[in-house]
Amino acid sequence: MKDIYKLILQNEKDPLSKVITVLEGNQSGEKALFINRELVYDSTKDGFFSNHRETLRKEEETKILKIDKHRVFCDVLSPPKKLVICGAGHVSMPIIQFGIMADFSVTVIDDRVPFADKARKAGAHKVLCQDFKSALKEIDSDENTYFVIVTRGHRYDQICLEMIIQKPNAYVGMIGSKMRVAKVKEELLEKGADQKIIEEIYTPIGLDIKAETPVEIAIAIMGEIILIKNRKKSGTGYSKEIVKELLDMLPEKRAVVLATIVSRKGSAPREIGTKMLIYPDGGIVGTIGGGCAESDVMFKALNLFSDSSKNTELVPVDMTGQDAEEDGMVCGGVIEVFLEKIS
Protein backbone atom coordinates (compact mmCIF):
# COMPACT_ATOMS: atom_id res chain seq x y z
CA MET A 1 0.00 0.00 0.00
CA LYS A 2 2.95 2.34 0.62
CA ASP A 3 3.70 2.46 -3.11
CA ILE A 4 0.48 4.29 -3.94
CA TYR A 5 1.31 7.15 -1.54
CA LYS A 6 4.83 7.43 -2.95
CA LEU A 7 3.35 7.70 -6.45
CA ILE A 8 0.82 10.32 -5.31
CA LEU A 9 3.64 12.44 -3.88
CA GLN A 10 5.82 12.01 -6.97
CA ASN A 11 3.02 12.95 -9.37
CA GLU A 12 1.34 15.73 -7.38
CA LYS A 13 1.74 18.22 -10.24
CA ASP A 14 -0.13 16.06 -12.73
CA PRO A 15 -3.67 17.46 -13.20
CA LEU A 16 -4.97 14.12 -14.49
CA SER A 17 -4.22 11.94 -11.46
CA LYS A 18 -6.99 10.14 -9.57
CA VAL A 19 -7.36 7.49 -6.90
CA ILE A 20 -10.36 5.17 -7.19
CA THR A 21 -11.51 3.12 -4.19
CA VAL A 22 -14.13 0.37 -3.99
CA LEU A 23 -16.55 1.31 -1.19
CA GLU A 24 -18.71 -1.80 -0.72
CA GLY A 25 -18.78 -5.57 -1.02
CA ASN A 26 -16.05 -8.20 -0.83
CA GLN A 27 -13.66 -5.95 -2.76
CA SER A 28 -14.18 -2.96 -0.46
CA GLY A 29 -10.93 -1.05 0.04
CA GLU A 30 -9.30 -2.05 -3.24
CA LYS A 31 -7.53 0.96 -4.73
CA ALA A 32 -6.23 2.03 -8.09
CA LEU A 33 -4.16 5.05 -9.12
CA PHE A 34 -4.55 6.49 -12.62
CA ILE A 35 -2.05 9.02 -13.97
CA ASN A 36 -2.69 10.59 -17.37
CA ARG A 37 -5.59 8.14 -17.71
CA GLU A 38 -3.25 5.15 -17.37
CA LEU A 39 -3.53 2.63 -14.53
CA VAL A 40 -0.18 2.79 -12.70
CA TYR A 41 -1.13 1.12 -9.42
CA ASP A 42 -3.62 -1.60 -8.51
CA SER A 43 -3.77 -2.83 -4.91
CA THR A 44 -5.08 -6.26 -5.91
CA LYS A 45 -3.79 -8.26 -8.84
CA ASP A 46 -6.64 -9.50 -11.04
CA GLY A 47 -9.08 -7.69 -8.74
CA PHE A 48 -11.89 -5.22 -9.37
CA PHE A 49 -9.89 -2.82 -11.52
CA SER A 50 -8.53 -5.45 -13.87
CA ASN A 51 -12.05 -5.68 -15.36
CA HIS A 52 -13.03 -2.01 -15.18
CA ARG A 53 -9.91 -0.15 -16.24
CA GLU A 54 -11.33 1.23 -19.47
CA THR A 55 -14.56 2.41 -17.84
CA LEU A 56 -12.69 4.38 -15.17
CA ARG A 57 -9.67 5.74 -16.99
CA LYS A 58 -11.48 8.77 -18.51
CA GLU A 59 -13.38 9.87 -15.38
CA GLU A 60 -12.30 13.40 -14.34
CA GLU A 61 -14.73 14.37 -11.56
CA THR A 62 -14.58 13.67 -7.82
CA LYS A 63 -17.72 11.66 -7.05
CA ILE A 64 -19.21 8.24 -6.33
CA LEU A 65 -19.73 6.03 -9.38
CA LYS A 66 -21.82 2.88 -9.81
CA ILE A 67 -19.77 0.30 -11.69
CA ASP A 68 -21.11 -3.23 -12.18
CA LYS A 69 -23.41 -2.82 -9.13
CA HIS A 70 -20.47 -1.62 -7.02
CA ARG A 71 -20.16 1.88 -5.58
CA VAL A 72 -16.66 3.26 -6.10
CA PHE A 73 -15.23 6.63 -5.15
CA CYS A 74 -13.31 8.57 -7.79
CA ASP A 75 -10.95 10.99 -6.02
CA VAL A 76 -9.38 13.44 -8.47
CA LEU A 77 -6.12 14.67 -7.00
CA SER A 78 -5.80 18.43 -6.87
CA PRO A 79 -2.38 19.78 -7.88
CA PRO A 80 -0.67 21.72 -5.09
CA LYS A 81 -1.78 25.34 -4.63
CA LYS A 82 1.06 27.84 -4.96
CA LEU A 83 1.13 31.38 -3.60
CA VAL A 84 3.82 33.72 -4.95
CA ILE A 85 4.21 36.99 -3.06
CA CYS A 86 6.22 39.76 -4.72
CA GLY A 87 7.49 41.95 -1.90
CA ALA A 88 8.25 41.17 1.74
CA GLY A 89 6.99 44.28 3.49
CA HIS A 90 4.72 44.51 6.52
CA VAL A 91 1.58 43.41 4.61
CA SER A 92 3.35 40.31 3.29
CA MET A 93 4.03 38.79 6.71
CA PRO A 94 0.39 37.93 7.59
CA ILE A 95 -0.26 36.90 3.95
CA ILE A 96 2.56 34.35 4.32
CA GLN A 97 1.09 33.01 7.56
CA PHE A 98 -2.49 32.83 6.28
CA GLY A 99 -1.28 31.21 3.05
CA ILE A 100 0.49 28.47 4.98
CA MET A 101 -2.57 27.87 7.18
CA ALA A 102 -4.68 27.58 4.00
CA ASP A 103 -2.32 24.83 2.71
CA PHE A 104 -0.58 26.88 -0.01
CA SER A 105 3.07 26.42 -0.89
CA VAL A 106 4.35 29.96 -0.30
CA THR A 107 7.19 31.63 -2.22
CA VAL A 108 8.31 35.18 -1.45
CA ILE A 109 10.46 37.45 -3.63
CA ASP A 110 12.33 40.49 -2.33
CA ASP A 111 15.75 41.89 -3.22
CA ARG A 112 16.42 43.29 0.26
CA VAL A 113 18.23 40.91 2.60
CA PRO A 114 16.58 42.07 5.89
CA PHE A 115 13.12 41.77 4.35
CA ALA A 116 13.88 38.35 2.82
CA ASP A 117 15.03 37.20 6.27
CA LYS A 118 11.72 38.35 7.78
CA ALA A 119 9.85 36.29 5.17
CA ARG A 120 11.87 33.21 6.15
CA LYS A 121 11.11 33.78 9.82
CA ALA A 122 7.40 34.13 8.97
CA GLY A 123 7.56 30.58 7.58
CA ALA A 124 7.67 31.04 3.78
CA HIS A 125 8.55 27.73 2.14
CA LYS A 126 10.85 29.43 -0.35
CA VAL A 127 12.40 32.91 -0.39
CA LEU A 128 14.17 34.37 -3.43
CA CYS A 129 16.40 37.26 -2.40
CA GLN A 130 17.13 38.73 -5.80
CA ASP A 131 15.70 41.25 -8.24
CA PHE A 132 12.08 40.64 -9.19
CA LYS A 133 12.70 40.07 -12.89
CA SER A 134 15.30 37.33 -12.52
CA ALA A 135 13.40 35.72 -9.62
CA LEU A 136 10.14 35.55 -11.58
CA LYS A 137 11.99 33.85 -14.44
CA GLU A 138 12.66 31.00 -12.00
CA ILE A 139 9.02 30.63 -10.95
CA ASP A 140 7.45 27.54 -12.51
CA SER A 141 3.80 28.60 -12.45
CA ASP A 142 0.64 26.82 -13.58
CA GLU A 143 -3.15 27.15 -13.40
CA ASN A 144 -2.96 26.68 -9.62
CA THR A 145 -0.52 29.54 -8.98
CA TYR A 146 -1.76 32.70 -7.24
CA PHE A 147 0.36 35.85 -7.58
CA VAL A 148 0.18 38.70 -5.07
CA ILE A 149 2.05 41.92 -5.92
CA VAL A 150 2.79 43.98 -2.82
CA THR A 151 6.10 45.65 -3.65
CA ARG A 152 7.44 48.96 -2.33
CA GLY A 153 6.85 51.05 -5.44
CA HIS A 154 5.08 51.25 -8.78
CA ARG A 155 8.20 50.63 -10.87
CA TYR A 156 8.65 47.29 -9.10
CA ASP A 157 4.93 46.58 -9.55
CA GLN A 158 5.35 47.13 -13.27
CA ILE A 159 8.35 44.80 -13.51
CA CYS A 160 6.46 42.07 -11.65
CA LEU A 161 3.23 42.49 -13.57
CA GLU A 162 4.98 42.54 -16.93
CA MET A 163 6.59 39.17 -16.12
CA ILE A 164 3.57 37.58 -14.45
CA ILE A 165 1.00 38.25 -17.19
CA GLN A 166 3.13 36.12 -19.49
CA LYS A 167 2.87 33.15 -17.14
CA PRO A 168 0.02 30.69 -16.54
CA ASN A 169 -1.82 31.57 -13.34
CA ALA A 170 -5.05 31.28 -11.39
CA TYR A 171 -4.98 34.80 -9.99
CA VAL A 172 -2.99 38.03 -10.18
CA GLY A 173 -3.68 40.68 -7.57
CA MET A 174 -1.87 44.00 -7.10
CA ILE A 175 -2.00 46.38 -4.16
CA GLY A 176 -1.87 50.14 -4.58
CA SER A 177 -3.82 53.36 -4.91
CA LYS A 178 -6.03 53.95 -7.95
CA MET A 179 -3.46 56.37 -9.34
CA ARG A 180 -0.54 53.98 -8.82
CA VAL A 181 -2.43 51.05 -10.34
CA ALA A 182 -3.66 53.09 -13.31
CA LYS A 183 -0.12 54.25 -14.06
CA VAL A 184 1.23 50.69 -14.05
CA LYS A 185 -1.56 49.46 -16.32
CA GLU A 186 -1.14 52.39 -18.71
CA GLU A 187 2.58 51.80 -19.08
CA LEU A 188 2.03 48.10 -19.77
CA LEU A 189 -0.60 48.82 -22.39
CA GLU A 190 1.79 51.25 -24.07
CA LYS A 191 4.29 48.36 -24.26
CA GLY A 192 1.72 46.24 -26.08
CA ALA A 193 0.17 44.21 -23.26
CA ASP A 194 -3.17 42.55 -24.02
CA GLN A 195 -6.05 44.76 -22.80
CA LYS A 196 -8.13 41.71 -21.80
CA ILE A 197 -5.35 40.29 -19.63
CA ILE A 198 -4.80 43.66 -17.95
CA GLU A 199 -8.51 43.91 -17.15
CA GLU A 200 -8.40 40.51 -15.41
CA ILE A 201 -5.95 41.74 -12.77
CA TYR A 202 -7.54 41.93 -9.33
CA THR A 203 -7.04 45.50 -8.25
CA PRO A 204 -7.82 46.96 -5.85
CA ILE A 205 -6.65 43.68 -4.38
CA GLY A 206 -8.74 41.73 -1.91
CA LEU A 207 -12.35 41.58 -0.87
CA ASP A 208 -13.94 44.89 0.08
CA ILE A 209 -14.05 44.55 3.88
CA LYS A 210 -12.77 48.09 4.50
CA ALA A 211 -9.43 46.64 5.60
CA GLU A 212 -6.90 49.03 7.13
CA THR A 213 -4.25 47.15 9.14
CA PRO A 214 -1.75 44.70 7.56
CA VAL A 215 -3.61 41.76 9.09
CA GLU A 216 -6.98 42.99 7.81
CA ILE A 217 -5.51 43.57 4.34
CA ALA A 218 -4.02 40.06 4.37
CA ILE A 219 -7.42 38.60 5.35
CA ALA A 220 -9.06 40.48 2.47
CA ILE A 221 -6.44 39.22 0.00
CA MET A 222 -6.56 35.59 1.14
CA GLY A 223 -10.37 35.73 1.23
CA GLU A 224 -10.40 36.74 -2.42
CA ILE A 225 -7.88 34.05 -3.35
CA ILE A 226 -9.87 31.36 -1.54
CA LEU A 227 -13.05 32.54 -3.29
CA ILE A 228 -11.36 32.21 -6.70
CA LYS A 229 -9.89 28.82 -5.77
CA ASN A 230 -13.17 27.37 -4.56
CA ARG A 231 -15.04 28.37 -7.70
CA LYS A 232 -13.19 25.56 -9.49
CA LYS A 233 -15.20 22.92 -7.59
CA SER A 234 -12.43 20.32 -7.68
CA GLY A 235 -11.93 17.61 -5.07
CA THR A 236 -9.50 18.03 -2.22
CA GLY A 237 -7.34 15.02 -2.98
CA TYR A 238 -4.55 13.99 -0.60
CA SER A 239 -2.83 16.81 1.26
CA LYS A 240 0.95 16.66 1.63
CA GLU A 241 0.46 16.43 5.38
CA ILE A 242 -1.69 13.30 5.05
CA VAL A 243 0.58 11.60 2.49
CA LYS A 244 3.78 12.30 4.42
CA GLU A 245 2.20 11.04 7.64
CA LEU A 246 1.20 7.80 5.91
CA LEU A 247 4.66 7.34 4.44
CA ASP A 248 6.28 7.98 7.82
CA MET A 249 4.03 5.66 9.81
CA LEU A 250 3.92 2.67 7.43
CA PRO A 251 7.58 1.60 7.92
CA GLU A 252 6.95 1.67 11.69
CA LYS A 253 4.01 -0.72 11.20
CA ARG A 254 1.67 1.62 13.06
CA ALA A 255 -2.05 1.23 12.48
CA VAL A 256 -4.17 4.17 11.34
CA VAL A 257 -7.64 4.71 9.91
CA LEU A 258 -7.98 6.97 6.89
CA ALA A 259 -11.37 8.72 6.88
CA THR A 260 -12.60 10.27 3.62
CA ILE A 261 -15.82 12.15 2.92
CA VAL A 262 -17.15 10.39 -0.19
CA SER A 263 -20.60 11.96 -0.52
CA ARG A 264 -22.37 15.06 0.72
CA LYS A 265 -25.97 16.27 0.55
CA GLY A 266 -27.20 19.59 1.85
CA SER A 267 -25.05 21.78 4.05
CA ALA A 268 -21.86 20.20 5.41
CA PRO A 269 -18.66 21.80 6.70
CA ARG A 270 -16.22 20.14 4.26
CA GLU A 271 -16.18 19.06 0.62
CA ILE A 272 -16.12 15.50 -0.69
CA GLY A 273 -12.58 14.13 -0.79
CA THR A 274 -11.66 15.75 2.54
CA LYS A 275 -9.55 13.40 4.65
CA MET A 276 -8.26 12.86 8.16
CA LEU A 277 -6.15 10.20 9.87
CA ILE A 278 -7.24 8.65 13.17
CA TYR A 279 -4.84 6.74 15.45
CA PRO A 280 -5.76 4.12 18.08
CA ASP A 281 -4.89 6.54 20.89
CA GLY A 282 -7.38 9.10 19.50
CA GLY A 283 -4.74 11.25 17.85
CA ILE A 284 -5.70 12.79 14.50
CA VAL A 285 -4.10 14.46 11.51
CA GLY A 286 -6.37 16.77 9.50
CA THR A 287 -10.09 17.29 10.00
CA ILE A 288 -13.36 16.48 8.25
CA GLY A 289 -15.16 19.40 9.83
CA GLY A 290 -14.95 19.00 13.60
CA GLY A 291 -17.87 18.94 16.01
CA CYS A 292 -20.19 16.05 16.78
CA ALA A 293 -20.04 14.65 13.24
CA GLU A 294 -16.27 14.23 13.45
CA SER A 295 -16.57 12.75 16.96
CA ASP A 296 -19.03 10.17 15.66
CA VAL A 297 -16.65 9.19 12.85
CA MET A 298 -13.74 8.94 15.29
CA PHE A 299 -15.78 6.62 17.55
CA LYS A 300 -16.52 4.34 14.56
CA ALA A 301 -12.85 4.42 13.56
CA LEU A 302 -11.71 3.39 17.04
CA ASN A 303 -14.16 0.46 16.93
CA LEU A 304 -12.72 -0.55 13.57
CA PHE A 305 -9.25 -0.98 15.13
CA SER A 306 -10.60 -3.63 17.50
CA ASP A 307 -12.63 -5.49 14.85
CA SER A 308 -10.36 -8.00 13.14
CA SER A 309 -13.16 -9.15 10.83
CA LYS A 310 -13.15 -6.00 8.68
CA ASN A 311 -10.79 -3.32 7.44
CA THR A 312 -13.28 -0.86 5.96
CA GLU A 313 -16.60 0.72 6.84
CA LEU A 314 -18.90 3.21 5.12
CA VAL A 315 -20.33 5.50 7.79
CA PRO A 316 -23.40 7.72 7.19
CA VAL A 317 -23.53 10.90 9.31
CA ASP A 318 -26.90 12.65 9.46
CA MET A 319 -26.68 16.28 10.58
CA THR A 320 -30.42 16.90 10.22
CA GLY A 321 -33.36 16.33 12.54
CA GLN A 322 -33.92 16.47 16.27
CA ASP A 323 -30.97 14.31 17.34
CA ALA A 324 -28.58 16.48 15.37
CA GLU A 325 -30.05 19.64 16.85
CA GLU A 326 -29.68 18.29 20.38
CA ASP A 327 -26.05 17.43 19.65
CA GLY A 328 -25.42 20.95 18.35
CA MET A 329 -24.94 20.05 14.68
CA VAL A 330 -25.80 23.23 12.84
CA CYS A 331 -24.93 22.31 9.26
CA GLY A 332 -28.06 20.35 8.40
CA GLY A 333 -26.60 18.00 5.80
CA VAL A 334 -25.82 14.32 5.32
CA ILE A 335 -22.38 12.94 4.55
CA GLU A 336 -20.90 9.48 4.00
CA VAL A 337 -17.43 8.84 5.34
CA PHE A 338 -15.36 5.88 4.17
CA LEU A 339 -13.08 4.41 6.84
CA GLU A 340 -10.16 2.22 5.84
CA LYS A 341 -7.73 0.62 8.24
CA ILE A 342 -4.14 0.96 7.05
CA SER A 343 -1.18 -0.76 8.64
Oligomer: single chain
Fold-level CATH name of the largest domain: Rossmann fold
Quick check: average pLDDT?
88
The total number of structural domains is 3
Number of helix segments? 12
Q: Report on the biggest sheet.
A: 5 strands, antiparallel
State the order of secondary-structure elements, H for helix, E for strand.
HEEEHEEEHEHEHEHEHHHHEEEHEHE
CATH superfamily membership of the largest domain, which one? NAD(P)-binding Rossmann-like Domain
- Determine the fraction of residues in helical runs and give it as a percent range: 25-40%
The CATH architecture of the largest domain can be given as 3-Layer(aba) Sandwich
**What is the CATH C level class of the largest domain, in words?**
Alpha Beta
Q: What is the β-strand count?
A: 15
The radius of gyration is: 23 Å
Tell me the structural class.
Answer: alpha/beta
Major β-sheet strand ordering:
3-2-1-5-4
Which geometry do the CA atoms define?
elongated
Poorly predicted parts = none
Task: Note down, in words, how this protein is organized.
This protein is α/β, with parallel strands linked by helices. The protein has three domains: 1-77, no CATH class; 82-230, Rossmann fold (3-Layer(aba) Sandwich); 239-343, no CATH class. The protein is 36% helix and 24% strand. It has helices at 2-10, 48-56, 92-101, 113-121, 132-138, 154-164, 178-190, 195-199, 214-230, 240-249, 291-306, 321-327, and strands at residues 17-22, 31-35, 38-42, 63-67, 70-76, 82-86, 105-109, 126-128, 145-149, 171-174, 256-265, 275-278, 284-286, 312-318, 334-342. The strands form three sheets. Strands 3-2-1-5-4 form a five-stranded antiparallel sheet, with helices on both faces. A five-stranded parallel sheet has the order 8-7-6-9-10, sandwiched between helices. Helix 6 (154-164) links the parallel strand 9 and strand 10. The chain is elongated and about 70 Å long. The model has no long low-confidence stretch (mean pLDDT 88).
